[in-house]
């Protein structure tokens, strides 16, 4: 098992990480009922930044123009002695193959906490895979916050196993996964995991990242590899992972990037719970960002350029 602690030695102490992430999962909404799947809605300082570019759109590929039905599947995976059960939300029917999004939960959380958002991404045309991490999930062994530093390797392993299913005869995902268009996303400790996939444990398969209420704590800001657009979303009243720490990580991103700031946003409820004024903005912005980066959807890019509702959010667009 690869251990990433040596790569970040000197950046982190157990006490610092534990203090910063204590209660990370408590502000995340608990399990909610699955949304009906048949509803049809309207469709770095000190670093030189490479030129911004429209993400490549594969020949003949276009983003779905209607909401798709959503199915779920569980994959029973392990990385050595680390159990990694994965919940997958995926589009049912449609024309596929579909881009892949790897989602990482927060400390003390679990994939089901995020099912509302993740199922909406799936309905928009993405296969969303969410592992349950062994030492940071609800009910996980030990509640070890420091183990967040090992999660980028877990996430990459999950991608290895998931993407391999595209070429496995007889598997329901065979020919259904767009293995050339892949993103990582995560909330809180999962946001740190996501940043780590572009820094200390760069996974070169990733084309984009979405960091919800996360920071670079422990994984650093040595962004490397090919340019991969990043979207940061953070509440300015976040009581768990400070807005300043998220903004500091965002400022260091040398690639096309954007940050959605929520003036009245906290750590989880305002980002992830339907009914909160910010929820629709967070869902719409993140979905359009994924449609643009993974499908090359010009209309989605144009929507990103529109100003969000005054008083709800501020969008810094450097894409």
Task: Provide an overview of this structure.
This protein is an alpha/beta fold and 319 residues long. The protein has one domain (62-318): Rossmann fold, CATH 3.40.50. It is built from eight helices and nine strands. The protein has helices spanning 14-21, 115-123, 151-164, 189-196, 243-252, 269-272, 277-295, 298-305, and strands at 69-79, 82-92, 98-104, 127-131, 177-187, 208-212, 230-235, 257-262, 314-318. The longest helix has 19 residues, at 277-295. Residues 1-16 and 26-53 have low confidence and may be disordered.
Which characteristics define this entry?
about 325 residues, alpha/beta, disordered N terminus, nine-stranded mixed beta sheet, 9 strands, 8 helices, Rossmann fold
CATH secondary-structure class: Alpha Beta
The number of helices is 8
Give the biggest beta sheet.
9 strands, mixed
Sheet/helix structural class: alpha/beta
Count the domains. Answer: 1
| Spans of at least 5 consecutive residues with low confidence | 1-16, 26-53
Q: In order across it, which strands form the biggest sheet? A: 1-2-4-3-5-6-7-8-9
CATH architecture: 3-Layer(aba) Sandwich
Mean pLDDT, all residues? 85
CATH superfamily: Alpha/Beta hydrolase fold, catalytic domain
Shape: globular
Query: Which topology does CATH recognise?
Result: Rossmann fold
In total, the number of strands is 9
Could you give the order of the helices and strands? HEEEHEHEHEEHEHHHE
């Amino acid at each position: 098992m690869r251990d990433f602690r040596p790569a970040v030695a000197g950046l982190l102490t157990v006490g610092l990480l534990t203090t910063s992430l204590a209660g990370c999962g408590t502000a995340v909404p608990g399990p909610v009922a699955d949304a009906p799947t048949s509803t049809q809605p309207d469709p770095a300082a000190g670093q030189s930044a490479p030129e911004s570019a429209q993400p490549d759109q594969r020949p003949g590929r276009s983003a779905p123009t209607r909401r798709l039905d959503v199915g779920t599947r569980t994959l029973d995976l392990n990385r050595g002695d680390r159990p990694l059960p994965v919940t997958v939300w995926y589009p049912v029917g449609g024309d596929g193959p579909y881009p892949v999004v790897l989602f990482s939960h927060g400390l003390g959380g679990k994939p089901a906490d995020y099912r509302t958002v993740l199922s909406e991404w799936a309905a928009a045309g993405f296969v969303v895979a969410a592992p349950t991490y062994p030492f940071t999930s609800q009910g996980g062994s030990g509640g070890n916050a420091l183990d967040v530093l090992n999660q980028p390797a877990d996430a990459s392993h999950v991608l290895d196993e998931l993407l391999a299913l595209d070429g496995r005869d007889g598997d329901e995902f065979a020919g259904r996964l767009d293995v050339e268009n892949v993103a990582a996303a995560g909330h809180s400790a999962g946001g740190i995991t996501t940043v780590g996939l572009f820094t200390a444990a760069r996974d070169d398969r990733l084309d984009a990242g979405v960091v919800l209420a996360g920071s670079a704590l422990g994984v650093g800001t040595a962004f490397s590899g090919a340019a991969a657009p990043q979207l940061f979303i953070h509440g300015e009243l976040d009581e768990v992972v400070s807005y300043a720490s998220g903004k500091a990580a965002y400022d260091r991103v040398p690639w096309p990037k954007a940050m959605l700031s929520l003036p009245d946003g906290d750590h989880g409820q305002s980002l992830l719970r339907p009914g909160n004024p910010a929820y629709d903005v967070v869902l719409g912005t993140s979905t359009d960002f994924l449609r643009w980066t993974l499908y090359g959807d010009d209309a989605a890019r144009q929507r990103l350029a529109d100003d969000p509702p005054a008083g709800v959010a501020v969008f810094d667009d450097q894409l």
